[in-house]
Amino acid sequence: MIAPTDRYGIIAGGTWCADHNKLVDRWPGEEEQVLILDKEVRGGGPACNLAIGVKRLDPEIPVATIGLLGDDADGHILQSQAQREGLDCSRLVTLPGCRTTFTDAFASEETGRRTHLYYPGTSDLLTPDHFQFEGSRARILHLGLPGLHEKMDEPWNGDSSGWVTVLKGARAAGIKTNLEMCSLPAPRLLEVVAPCLGHLDYLIINDFEVAALSQRPIRHGEEVDLRDCLANAKDVFDRGSMELLVVHFPQGAIAMQRGADPLVTSSVAVPKEAIAGSNGAGDAFTSGILYGMHQGWRLRDALQLAHSAAAASMRHIGTTDSIERWQDCLTLAKVYGSRAELEFPA
User: Fold this and answer.
1) How many angstroms separate the most distant Cα atoms in the chain?
2) How is the chain split into domains, by residue range?
3) Which fold has domain 8-336?
4) Each residue of 293-313: pLDDT tens digit?
5) CA distances from 273 to 258, 283, 332 (A)
6) Is the overall model pTM greater than 0.90, yes or no?
7) Which of 61, 110, 284, 287 yields a CA-CA distance of 20 to 30 A from 309?
8) Angle of the 46-57 helix axis to the 73-84 helix axis, nearest 10
């Protein structure tokens, strides 16, 4: 087996999705009409966003991606984007006659919030057989999204799901693991993610997701209660194998690391006029954390980069277009400044 100190690079696997991004002036009610202010097609999903996010933070780091595309217009756009960003695309497979996974991703100019309409396409055909780690020198695997892949969500070779099979395979190969999830209804999220908690080294999620996993669900967009969020994080941390759990929310993040006190940090105060949309901000945040962990940074420094990368990403309606080198993201964050310091609950 390759020694941990000899490993270098990141693999991002799972969902490759064509985001049909649309910026609208406001989110409509049923049978109402609103104005589309901007539109584009860009890559989305964790196998795309994390891979490109890390590569933009540091173009020198090797980043591979694993996923499925259809042989269609969206698939061609995504393949070109992946190659243009310098990813290792040797395991980004195009399936003839299949429709690429796509999302109609709407961002409201009025609120900055997003709404996604999802078509599974090739994601339903992804299986653990597409993940082969023999000979890989990567240090970290970033994987997602449970609940949105028909075959991966099913039991596989005695495991409760294909996700568990892949995570176990990566760790057996000496690769550290992180799992991304999407904000499914809380019962479904718990069902598909709970079996994975014992096979993770990192878990970087939002306040809605950690509440769902702790079986104390909250509604989307609720104001974060730090005391409740910390209790939820402790519960999930104690039930999993993670060496690091990070919970992010608009105002900041809570981080828990084995053998250390919990850490709370504030997010960047991005001016409203600079925000084009929040689609992909969570992926950018995760890119910053995993890059920092990969490079051996202190946790506080990795969190600072995570907040900075998320802030940079919000300047474009796409998920990765406005992420810059990590030094430039940190500089941008200094210009914007931080939100009010969060008081850690006693």
Assistant:
1) 59
2) 8-336
3) UDP-N-acetylmuramoyl-L-alanine:D-glutamate ligase (3.40.1190)
4) 999 999 999 999 999 999 999
5) 39, 22, 15
6) yes
7) 110
8) 20
